[in-house]
Write a structure and sequence with these properties.
alpha+beta; Aldehyde Oxidoreductase, domain 4; Aldehyde Oxidoreductase, domain 3; 3 domains; 17 helices; disordered N terminus
Length: 751
């Protein structure tokens, strides 16, 4: 039974700005991360990486490394202990179709930086020194790492990735309508490869507990995924395998899948029967997941007033030779704009690289940049204001999903409120018409969109006799504020102070929850926590009614409120009892419940759910030097109910900053002769720093949504989607130079 009572009275926390409950632990150093947990007899592993991108190992010499005092063992493909045989054993919960990478599996080299040996020693410094003494000889082959060069080899993936919507079948007559359209444009768009680079590098500490039992601390966005992976690969019982990750120093999607350091740490710990830690270097953070390159072509046919007649969006993304990585790239064009003649196609091409991975708003960052830049080009071609053009092609139905209506869509309010805050009405539409001194001033805008999703999730709630509440599940807080919003929800549901609530996350001994990704955590885990707390509240209410001379004896549940640690009759605070009193009278020292939150099938059958935004950007470009300064951003977001405006704003700020990086700075540079990323450090891989960031204004527009009981939509992704397009459109307005290949750098502006 799900209670339908009013859960809070005079004081509420949901909807109010609250500081992060985990903040003090993080800023004082009390928070421990995967590579910081101690264990008796802890050994340290250091990974040796391949120096070629394709070929095979012809000889391995570990003698010098093994002779170093303190070295315990050097693992290579020649002495690797036996693990599971079949490919499916290595497929984690979010793996794409294919044969997942297996570290030290054989002599084959699939990509540059591939782990080819693991040196385990008594301390980290010894392991690092000995790793430099491992000698390997290779027979190298010529790698193919350029998506453009592999264009003719691209194919439609035969097996679709779970949870990734393939493009719908074309509708109408896209080619004919394009040919007949008075206004036509067709252009190619491309983003550079980007690497995740969270502050915390990937690390795994495997603590050997004896008798085949292990406690594992892993850099992962969902400990259940690591647990399932390790159990499957190493033939372990899940009951003997506890995986924990209470804190995560950023992920952006790099921690969705178990990475190879986890496999190597467990391999060594099991073989040596002692605890082992493997931490990757910053350099090695370029040796696995990344946002893939994508070749995109958009063709728009329109009437002279800007109304779309034809829309075609084609994309080719890169993947590895061993897995068919897929993401939603082209569908966004069909979601955003009304058009009767549409064709959307998506292919992938195999490259000699590691498998790409989901990186904040995967697919949407790529595809929305292309369509929103193309729409800006159409605005200039038709002489229609960019906002007005979008309104003329506005849709309240998702044409990619059998034309189902959106459950809510306050995008028009995003346009109007964002434009007013930004001052869009003062914009002179003519390129190069606005300037300040030697700088050209440009104003651009774009639309953002991301799926509003909810996954099945469990959570528990335990109310103790002293009135303290514990809630939690196995999901992770990747910096989004999950600890805080779950604490707020729990406190409101049982009418407690936030200080009386403890939230626990990132432990496989807690109820299972999905990985923290996709912007679904608030809806999924939040709903589960609310339901568990409501169950506890009902138990407490029954005890209160049974008390001798209870003021609630003849009161129904829907007539009470939970507030100030008490159960009171709504509107009559004098009639009530405290939670502690009810439990004491009932002779119980704890009330507990475990609940499940799940998507609303009826809602999903009838509606589609998306988060929307409108982004406005101002750039100032030095006319002679071509240097770009992004001086203002306004991001207006429609995301249903905002649980915590403070942490929500932080999420949008972070997304916008990543969008700035995508637009102006981030680029993993491949030397295609070597098949190697050459700028594999934070000195040469540029990301936005404080000096790059000026004013970012975040607006949350009012929106009511019924996709989940909390009425929330995800915020982790929407801040980045469309931001790069708004900046690129502003650069065009400033300079008259249309740059369709990100990042926008000085050489492209001056070319």
């Amino acid at each position: 039974m799900v209670a339908t009572f009013s859960s809070t009275g005079r004081d509420t926390f949901v909807g109010s700005p609250q500081s992060r409950v985990d903040g003090p632990a993080k800023v004082t150093g009390l928070a421990k991360y995967a590579g910081e947990f101690a264990a008796p007899d802890l050994a340290h592993g250091y990974v040796v990486s391949s120096t070629i991108a394709k070929g095979s190992i012809t000889a391995v010499d570990t003698a010098a490394a093994e002779a170093v005092p303190g070295v315990i063992k050097v693992f290579t493909h020649e002495n690797r202990p036996r693990t599971a045989w079949l490919n499916y054993n290595y497929q984690d919960a979010v793996a794409p179709p294919g044969a997942p990478f297996r570290a030290l599996y054989d002599d084959k080299i699939h990509y540059s930086g591939q782990p080819v040996a693991l040196v385990v020693a008594e301390d980290f410094e010894t392991a690092r020194h000995a790793a430099a003494l491992v000698k390997l000889d290779y027979e190298a082959e010529e790698p193919l790492t350029d998506t453009e060069a592999a264009r003719d080899l691209a194919y439609v993936p035969p097996k679709k990735r779970n949870g990734i919507k393939p493009p719908p079948e074309p509708w109408g007559d896209p080619e004919g309508a394009y040919d007949r359209a008075p206004v036509k444009l067709s252009q190619d768009y491309r983003l550079a490869i980007e690497h995740h680079n969270p502050m915390e590098p990937h690390a795994s500490t495997v603590v050997f507990e004896g008798d085949g039992k292990y406690t594992v601390y892993d850099k992962i966005q969902g400990v259940s995924n690591s647990q399932g992976y390790l159990a499957s690969v190493f033939g372990l019982n899940k009951d003997d395998l506890r995986v924990m990750n209470p804190y995560l120093g950023g992920g952006f999607g790099s921690g969705l899948r178990p990475q190879y350091q986890l496999f190597l740490a467990m391999l060594a710990a099991r073989e040596l029967e002692r605890s082992v830690r493997v931490a990757l270097t910053r350099d090695q953070m370029w040796s696995f997941t990344y946002r893939p390159d994508a070749l995109q072509t958009i063709a728009l046919g329109a009437d002279r007033d800007g109304a779309l007649r034809s829309l075609r969006h084609d994309a080719i993304g890169g993947t590895s030779h061993f897995e068919d990585y897929q993401e939603v790239v082209v569908n966004w064009s069909g979601v955003l704009y009304k058009c009767e003649n549409v064709a959307l196609t998506y292919k992938i091409a195999k490259l000699d690289t590691f498998t790409p991975g989901d990186m904040r708003a995967p697919g949407a960052v790529t595809g929305v940049f292309a369509i929103e830049t193309a729409m800006d080009e159409l605005a200039y071609a038709t002489g229609v204001d960019p906002i007005e053009l979008r309104l003329r092609n506005f849709t309240d139905h998702d044409q990619t999903a059998q034309d189902k209506p959106f459950g809510s869509k306050a995008l028009k309010s995003c346009f109007s409120e964002g434009a007013e805050r930004f001052g869009w009405s003062r914009r002179d539409p003519e390129p190069r018409s606005m300037r300040e001194g030697r700088e050209l001033v440009g104003w651009g805008m774009a639309t953002g969109v991301w799926e509003s999703m909810m996954m099945q999730s469990g959570a528990h709630a335990i109310l103790s006799a002293d009135g303290k509440l514990e809630v939690g599940n196995s999901t992770g807080d990747i910096g989004t504020g999950t600890y805080t919003i779950l604490t707020q929800i729990a406190a409101d549901t049982l009418g407690l102070a936030m200080e009386d609530v403890t939230t626990k996350l990132g432990d496989t001994r807690l109820p299972e929850a999905p990985v923290a990704g996709g912007s679904w955590t608030a809806a999924s885990s939040g709903t589960a926590v609310m339901k568990a707390c409501r169950d506890v509240a009902e138990q407490a209410f029954r005890l209160a009614r049974q008390m001798e001379n209870s003021p609630l004896a003849n009161v129904d549940l829907d007539r009470v409120v939970f507030t100030g640690g008490r159960i009171e009759v709504a509107g009559d605070p004098g009639r009530g009892v405290s939670l502690v009193e009810a439990m004491r009278a009932g002779g119980v020292d704890r009330l507990e419940a475990t609940a499940q939150g799940a998507p609303d099938k009826d809602f999903n059958d009838a509606y589609e759910a998306y988060t929307h935004s409108a982004i406005f950007a101002e750039v100032k470009v030095d006319e002679e030097l071509g240097q770009v300064r992004l001086t203002r951003v306004v991001s207006a977001v429609a995301a249903g109910k905002i649980l915590n405006p403070k942490t929500a704003r932080s999420q949008i700020l972070g997304g916008v900053v990543m969008g700035i990086g995508s637009a102006l700075e981030e680029e993993s540079m491949l030397d295609h002769r070597l098949g190697r990323f050459m700028n594999h450090n934070l000195g040469e891989y540029h990301v936005p720093v404080n000096a790059d960031i000026y004013d970012i204004d975040v607006i949350f527009v009012d929106e009511e949504d019924k996709a989940n009981p909390l009425g929330v939509k995800g915020l982790g992704e929407i801040g980045i989607v469309g931001t790069a397009a708004a900046i690129a459109n502003a650069v065009y307005h400033a300079t008259g130079k249309r740059i369709r290949h990100l990042p926008i750098t000085v050489d492209k502006i001056l070319a």
